[in-house]
Amino acid sequence: MKATIERATLLKSLGHVQSVVERRNTIPILSNVLIEASEDGGIRLMATDLDLQINETVEANVTQAGATTVSAHTLFDIARKLPEGSQVELNAAEGKMQVNAGRARFNLATLPRDDFPVIAEGDLPTRFELPAATLRQIIDKTRFAISTEETRYYLNGIFLHVSDESQPVLKAAATDGHRLARVTVPRPDGAAGMPDVIIPRKCVAELRKLLEELDGTVQLSLSETKIRFGLGAAILTSKLIDGTFPDYSRVIPTANDKLLRIDPRSLEEGVDRVATIASEKTRAVKMALDRDKVTLSVTSPENGTAAEEVPGDYGSEGFEIGFNARYLLDILGQMEGDLIEVHLADAAAPTLLRENDKAPALYVLMPMRV
């Protein structure tokens, strides 16, 4: 195989594929990126960890078609350090690959292309499109609530499902048992009857990176076990989490009768300030609700106390409730607009937060004892 490719093109594409590759691998071939040069002048780069696979096709000047695999992180580091604007020559033969650019020469060990594992997608019967901006919104507003507890593996991803309410919708939800985030968007054509799926955390992270530079639409194809995202020149394929996501609608409170309207930025900044002295273990912040104000306070045996008043529109009887400051800040960080609604019941009941009743995103936060 022999091909010449612009450094910027190679670097960008390697940046996408190498992040799928795990740093420590017991199977040597999984540390490698598959490079396939075809006669029509394109190079396909592909990487996998057996659960997630990405392949991307980029333009190149191919003088000899062929394929090989080479260490993904090494090639990425080389491309990163090559001079800007240089042309990179890739030349693979007899178990070695030469990388030449300007006056730099590298000779890298390769492994045979035939040993490279490819995820068999099988049949992906459900197909629909989503605008890249919608998919970005779904990920950004839910992924902070994905659980990292490996024992509850079925919570280690974003749950995607369709629902028929007053109109057909597509819902995405994530929870770690302490907080819940849910986004609702109109159901895209072709998504009717799709299976309920849980997209793993690593796939969500890689997908979000690829969406950064993408405008237009993303093609989604899925079955009960696999999902594929068509993102322009890149295709991301992932196995889905084999588990049942809990019926999260049961924890969304419907009878919280105390309503606080407050500026999310003022509340976020206030919580952030008083939480400076909160102990790492509890991270608890107390909210005392009173007519037209909220008093935030933290008491830490090691560090002392802090308090701040934040104006808010609250008309019910006053009471105190505690939250984990980090969880509350994660939710407030996703809120837009000048006013949000906080629906409360009592100090022990889940609290509902949203921008308004028309907003696509809704959050539930469990209180803490303080």
From TrEMBL:
NCBIfam families: dnan
Taxonomic placement: Bacteria, Pseudomonadati, Pseudomonadota, Alphaproteobacteria, Sphingomonadales
The name this protein goes by in its record: Beta sliding clamp
Originating species: Sphingosinicella rhizophila
Keyword Membrane applies: no
GO terms assigned for molecular function: DNA-directed DNA polymerase activity
Compartmental location: Cytoplasm
Keywords from the UniProt entry: Cytoplasm, DNA replication, DNA-binding, DNA-directed DNA polymerase, Nucleotidyltransferase, Transferase
Assembly notes: Forms a ring-shaped head-to-tail homodimer around DNA.
Gene name for this UniProt entry: dnaN
